[in-house]
Amino acid sequence: MGSNDRNKPCWCGSGKKYKKCHLIREEQDSLTRRELEDYAKNQKSKKVCSVNNLYPDDCSKKIINAHTISKSGSLKEISENGHVMGAKPSLSGLIKSNGKLELE
């Protein structure tokens, strides 16, 4: 962000102004491992509609328990026994697996 963007919301989504968040990031204290884990857990629990940006006129904005990927297309490629596989990265999990993401 340029100097004209100092008062805009920060790109990270914190809700703070950029000048109060990431402008002076290198001068701020580093986060602890626990803080990183807590942040990741909090972000993971947020429910987001992935289709709203693609089809804003067709989206009801209501979050439902459904996939945005076609069953007949790519969904079967990323599923196993009817369960969609995905990586759930965490710092402790990456340490245990020597930095490899494991599908769950």
Topology readout:
Blueprint (H helix, E strand, L loop, with lengths): L32 H12 L34 E2 L2 E2 L6 H6 L8
Antiparallel strand pairs: 1-2
Strand numbers in spatial order across the main sheet: 1-2
Overall structural class, as computed from helix and strand content, comes to: mainly alpha
Please give the count of helices: 2
Largest sheet data: 2 strands, antiparallel
Indicate the percent of residues in helices.
10-25%
Q: Note poorly predicted spans.
A: none
Query: What value does the average pLDDT take?
Result: 79
The count of β-strands is: 2
Gyration radius, in Å: 18 Å
Q: Proportion of β residues?
A: under 5%
The topology string of helices and strands comes to HEEH
How is the quaternary structure best described?
single chain
Overall geometry: flat
What does this structure look like?
The protein has 104 residues and is mainly α. It has a domain at 1-30. 17% of the residues lie in helices and 4% in strands. It is built from 2 helices and 2 strands, in the order αββα. A two-stranded antiparallel ribbon has the order 1-2. The longest helix has 12 residues, at 33-44. The model has no long low-confidence stretch (mean pLDDT 79).
